[in-house]
Amino acid sequence: MRVAISGKGGVGKTTISAVLSRTMSRRGHRVIAIDCDSDPNLAANVGLKEEMVGMLRPFLDQSGEVRFVPRNLSPSTLLAQYGYHGPDGITLMLAARAEKAGSG
Question: How far apart, in whole angstroms, are the C-alpha atoms of residue 18 and residue 93?
Fold first, then answer.
């Protein structure tokens, strides 16, 4: 099963994602939770301690002139290199992190 949650800012997407992830994992499902928000908070909401949240490496590097997207990696290699084992057996991944705000 694949589930994606989207919507306007402030409607509870991260909270719903965290509760759903922990519930499904506790029921025996394999959960890979990927935070694609520009202000990522899913790992903290799942219950990862603050010092561990800062250690998550985004697999999309959008910080420089050249954008980095990992290519030719199997799903298991991608998980091994960028996944973090969190509470309740959830594997957490961070898609990207905003390094600075832009103008719109």
Answer: 13
Q: What per-residue confidence (pLDDT) applies to 18?
A: 96
CA-based R_g, the chain, Å? 14
For position 5, what pLDDT does the model report? Answer: 94
Q: Look up tokens 């219950």; give the residue.
A: 47
Q: Are 93 and 83 in contact (CB under 8 A)?
A: yes
Burial class (CB in 10 A: 0-12, 13-18, 19+), 79: middle
Quote the domain boundaries for residue 85. 13-94
Q: Are 11 and 5 in contact (CB under 8 A)?
A: no
**Burial letters 23-39, b for 16+ CB under 10 A, else e:** ebbeeeeebebbbebee
Nearest to 56 by CA among 30, 85, 76: 85
Contact assessment for residue 35 and residue 42, using Cβ atoms and an 8 Å cutoff: yes
